[in-house]
């Protein structure tokens, strides 16, 4: 049987059907229905009282965030993320300015941000890579000093806490993706998380075509999400602590199986971190070893993913300044299969294949 790199959790069907019955009774399918309102309220409680807007996906969330914060010109960003982080900037007509990453967390290196600021810089868009936190306190200070707005792409960060609060409560805006492959999912979906009520109203307008009834305020887009997606979220949300606990156990097993091998794992020294174990990436000593292992696993129907490759300053349609650390890590990194129902015997098989393909 094939093993995929991720596997979406599906709640008990009866529970989802229970929500469907409510949708059928009400005949209210989308446009801020009661399940969307319920999910937003539950998420707000989960995310320390922040204003939460449920969005169609994590990419539109990023684009609406850039619009709502009126970022223009240059946006300082990370080259080590999913492509949507960079394309959201380009799609909004801004220029991504890449700052290289830290060797341990693979997040943007905050000590290199100030050197990249120019008179055209209006903001910072950084990713909490694999759920490891950016240096949010240092970035906040830099942003204050230079009057910049901050967006965190928190697509990997659901359930992470740092300095006693949700990692998604940092920045002017944090975005999240609730895509089926993520730790917490709503099939497709995402969110914009912020603390400012005025900003939340602006985001609401942008995601709802820019009008309320017959009154037209601004350019907008359709960034809403439906009752069906909210229902999936309501089924899954209470299970997140269980997901995280199960994944923690799998990480321990993986680390045991891979002990003593010349592999690097991203990590964070942040003492206050409560981590979510969103992914299981490994960095090989060479790109050749990475390919050998990837191919050997694929021959056994075990799928892995070069998450993230390429380094985003090397996209074929947009080239940025050199980022040697990001380029080097992205060539050697591989995300191994990782989801709650992965079995010990699968991890052992994967461990044996890796061990015998490192020459
Ligand atoms: C998944 C992901 C996105 C995109 O989210 P979608 O909901 O798929 O649009 C953006 N950034 C990162 C880092 C992601 O992992």
What are the key terms here?
359 residues, two-stranded antiparallel ribbon, binds pyridoxal-5'-phosphate, Aspartate Aminotransferase, domain 2, globular, alpha/beta, 36% helix, 15 strands, Aspartate Aminotransferase, domain 1
Describe the protein's architecture and organization:
- The protein is α/β, with parallel strands linked by helices and 359 residues long.
- It has two domains: 13-238, Aspartate Aminotransferase, domain 2 (3-Layer(aba) Sandwich), CATH 3.40.640.10; 239-356, Alpha-Beta Complex (Aspartate Aminotransferase, domain 1), CATH 3.90.1150.
- It is built from eleven helices and 15 strands.
- Strands 1-9-8-5-4-2-3 form a seven-stranded mixed beta sheet, with helices on both faces.
- The structure holds pyridoxal-5'-phosphate.
- The site of pyridoxal-5'-phosphate (PLP) has 14 residues, from helix 3 and helix 4.
- The active site is at 182 (proton acceptor).
Give the SSE layout.
Blueprint: H1 13-26, H2 34-46, E1 51-55, H3 58-68, E2 74-77, H4 83-91, E3 95-98, E4 121-127, H5 136-146, E5 149-153, E6 161-162, E7 165-166, E8 173-177, E9 190-194, H6 197-207, E10 211-212, E11 215-216, H7 227-236, H8 240-257, E12 281-283, H9 287-299, E13 314-315, E14 318-319, H10 324-332, E15 333-335, H11 344-355
Parallel strand pairs: 2-3, 2-4, 4-5, 5-8
Antiparallel strand pairs: 1-9, 6-7, 8-9, 10-11, 12-15, 13-14
Helix pairs in contact: 1-7, 2-7, 3-4, 3-6, 8-11
Pyridoxal-5'-phosphate is lined by residues 57-59, 81-82, 84-85, 127, 153, 155-156, 177, 179, 190.
């Amino acid at each position: 049987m094939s093993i995929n790199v991720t596997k979406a959790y599906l709640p008990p069907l009866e529970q989802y059907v229970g929500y469907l019955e409510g949708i059928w009774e009400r005949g209210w399918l989308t446009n801020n229905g009661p399940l969307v309102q319920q999910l937003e309220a539950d998420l707000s409680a989960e995310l320390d009282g922040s204003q939460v807007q449920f969005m169609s996906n994590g990419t539109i969330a990023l684009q609406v965030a850039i619009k709502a914060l009126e970022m223009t010109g240059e946006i300082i960003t990370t080259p080590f993320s999913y492509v949507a982080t960079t394309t959201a900037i380009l799609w909004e007509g801004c220029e991504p300015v890449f700052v290289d990453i830290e060797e341990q967390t693979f997040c943007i290196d905050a000590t290199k941000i100030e050197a990249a600021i120019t008179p055209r810089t209006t903001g910072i868009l950084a990713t909490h890579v694999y759920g490891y936190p950016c240096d949010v306190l240092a970035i906040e200070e830099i942003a204050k000093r230079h009057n910049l707005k901050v967006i965190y792409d928190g697509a990997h960060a659901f359930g992470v806490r740092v300095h006693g609060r949700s990692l998604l409560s940092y920045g002017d805006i944090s975005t999240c993706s609730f895509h089926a492959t993520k730790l917490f999912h709503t099939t497709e979906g995402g969110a914009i998380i912020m603390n400012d009520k005025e900003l939340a109203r602006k985001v609401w307008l942008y995601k709802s075509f820019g009008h309320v009834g017959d009154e037209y305020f601004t350019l907008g887009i359709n960034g809403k999400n439906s009752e069906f997606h909210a229902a999936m979220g309501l089924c899954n949300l209470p299970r997140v602590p269980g997901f995280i606990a199960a994944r923690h156990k799998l990480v321990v097993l993986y680390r045991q199986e891979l002990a003593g091998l010349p592999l690097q794992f991203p990590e964070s020294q942040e003492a206050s971190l409560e981590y979510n174990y969103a992914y299981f990436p490994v960095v090989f000593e060479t790109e050749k070893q990475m390919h050998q292992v990837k191919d050997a696993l694929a021959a056994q129907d075990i799928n892995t993913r070069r998450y993230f490759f390429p380094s985003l300053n090397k996209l074929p349609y947009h080239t940025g300044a050199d980022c040697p650390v990001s380029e080097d890590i992205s060539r050697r990194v591989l995300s191994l299969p990782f989801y709650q129902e992965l079995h010990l015997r699968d991890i052992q098989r994967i461990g044996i294949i890796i061990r015998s393909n490192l020459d």
